[in-house]
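To whoever is on call:

I kicked off a structure prediction for a single chain this morning and the downstream step that reads the tokens threw a length-mismatch warning. I double-checked the sequence; it's 505 residues and nothing unusual in it as far as I can see. Pasting both halves so you can look.
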Amino acid sequence: MLEKKLALKIDEYISKYPEKNCLWFRGQWWSATKFKALADDCVALLKSAGFSEGQRLAVLIPNSPVALALMYAVWKLGGVYCPLNEKTGEISLLKTLKLLKPFSVALSEGVKKELEDALKNSGWNCSRFNFEKITGSENFSGVTAPADDLDKKLAVIFSTSGTTGDPKAVPLTHENILSDIEACLKQLVELNPENSLLNVLPNFHAFGFTVCCVLPFVLGASQVLVENFMPPSNVIKAIEEAHPDVLLLVPTMFNFAAGLLERQNKKLDGIKILITGGDKYNIKMDDRITAAFGVPVIEGYGITECSPVLSVNPRPSERKLGTVGPALPGFELQLRSEDGKILEISGEPGEGVLWTRGPAVTPGYYHADELNHERFQDGWFNTGDYVQIDKDGYIKILDRVTDIIIVGGFNVYPQEVEAILAEHPAVNTAVVVGMPNDMSGEVPKAFILKNKDAEVSDRELINFCKERLSHYKVPRAVEFVDALPLSATGKILRRVLRQKEREKK
């Protein structure tokens, strides 16, 4: 059955490798049979509560056996898995839940009581789950919500704050994710069932979810689960104990881990493949990363709407440093001008806004007709990235046409931060852009037009944001200005502000 394709892939894995080391967590290896037992418990729990086809389960649980088991159980029952970031903040989470209308909300042991109370007070059924068993979640219950034909085809919905501060949700079908994984395996020919992949990237992001969590099941490989990257010493310890030979990290994580290894005068043995994505890789780090891990990094590129991997360098011997490799099989590419005119890709290096289509591209944003009209056209999707494609098809990311800021692999939408800043009585206009940062790739910076005669310091505005936003969304710098660059139509030119920051580096 199409709707359960990913569940069938995990079924095949468990049937073929019942006693194989399936996943490692907190010092212990789990066999596929042990994992199945936990998943069966989750299926029984969901089913007894009335969870059914097309229903959404919201999950605020870090990388752990129970998170994977709930994912598998949801798919077995024909439902939709909705991983969320508990650190998004109460206001944003409540908006997202209103959009998703989940059957229930699964919480980890570590979720703050205040957040649980806020969710319950807003009418959502919540239950806490142990990381390794369902003990304690016996009170699990839910409320059946509407499910249309699309819901019944979906595997997962990823959520962000969106460009307006309101939630944006990207639904992906089983076919989307499976086609992206199969394309990855065709391009990354060195991956095989004997590999063990590090799964520390947060699974509420598409990169961590698809590549670190689901791909090992399809490949027949094992995975090493770590709840959080910070502190990096926990990750190094997990690598030394469990010996994953494929490491997938965003550039900031590689930088932190390499720094720790250098300070401890250590080198890791047995690493075969390093893959990075989620943010621009600083090629100045390359020699340092290669020395620390023993092999070169291969860089890829993805976007949630593409399930997420769109391109990747095939192997170290074929990589072009500074590019994100050629597109995966199945993706068609177009270059367009910013006003939408199709540009010819003639074999010579060409530049333009990257549009794509293919079986891994989302069918469209969840319940967002206006946004779909903006980003989709005749089956083609606008990635919002300005790129260069060379004669061999290798892609180089030059800039983002959309305003998104990527902080250590985490997406920050400027409009959300600007909306918070605008709540301060001293602020007339706030514009937030990304400024280069050696550690995080980018960090937010705010340009502020104050109200007449208002008095406020940069530190006061930063603290104001800290009280209302996740830490990675908080501006690291505030600059007060007398005017902002405007287009002929009065639109604020963010690219001018971004360029100004780059010229300072």
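Update from on-call: the warning came from a stale cache, not from the record. Cleared it. Sanity check on the structure: Residues 405-504 form a domain with the GMP Synthetase; Chain A, domain 3 fold (CATH 3.30.300.30).
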